[in-house]
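Write out a sequence, fold above all:
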Amino acid sequence: MALHLPGGKRLAVALGADFDAHCLWMGTFDVTSPSYLSRGEFGAEVGVPRLLALYRRLGLRTTWCIPSHTLQTFPEQSAAVIEAGHEIAAHGCYHEQITTLSPTEERRLMELQLAHHEQFVGVRPKGYRSPAWDFSDVTLTLLEEYGFVWDSSLMGRDFEAYRPRPVVSIDREHGNTFGAPSPVIEIPVSWFLDDFPALEMRPGGNAMGDTDTLLRRWIDHFDFAYQRVPGGVFALTVHPQTIGRAHAFLMFERFLDHVLAHDDIWVTTMSDIAACWRDD
C-alpha cells in the first residue's frame, strides 16, 4: 500500500494553507477581543493575497483548509482562493475543539460545514483537516460515513501516506487494540512542519521563534524526505495570518526556492496526491 507518483517524480509536496482567520482565536482559544480578531483579519486581508500572489508567480496549486466560518466571514478572499485554482478542504465549522464535543454535536457541525461548503464552494470537499489536529473517538467514523477521500490531521507517519487504524480499546496493562484500517487515506502532518507553533504569540504561550531556525528545520525535513523516502509525501502547513508577516514570508520564499530547485518533486493538491494511492 503506497503512493504511486507520476513518472519521474520522487517526492510529492503538499503545501497546506489553514485559512482560519477569526475562528482560530474564537474556537481553539476562546478569545474574541478586537486585538485577537484583528490578527485573523490580517490573515484574510494581507496574508491571503500575499500567498496567492506567491503561488501564482511560482505556478503552484495547493490545498487550502478553510473552516466554514471563514467562508462566511471573508467570502471575497475565499472566492479568490477558488478562482486561483486551489483546492478547498474542510477544516471544521468554527475551528471547534473536537475532543470537547458530544458525538451528536460533532455530527451536527460536520453536516453544517458540509452544507456551507456546498453553498460557498459549490462542491463537497474531498478532504478534511481537523481543527487543532485532534480527533474524537467518532471523527474517523464520521469521515468514512460522509465519504471523505483523505484526511490530514494525524501523525502516525512522517513522510508516507497511510490508512489510519482506530484504537478501539485502550488497556494500560495489556496493550491497546487497533481496529481495521480505514478507507480514508491519511496525509500526515507534523507540528514541526507548521508555522503557527513556532512563530505565533498566543494565549498562554509566546513562541515568536527565530525564522532561521525554522527554515533549517523545514529544509532538514524536506531533505530527509527527498533523499530517504522516495515515493513519499512532504506536507507543510502554513497560516495566512502567520506566514503572511514580513519576516515569515521572506523565510517561506527562501524555503520554496530550496524545494523548487529539485526537478523531480511534485507540488500539488492533497486530492491529487491521494488519487495516487494504490492498495497493492
In short: The mean pLDDT is 96. The longest helix spans residues 34-58.
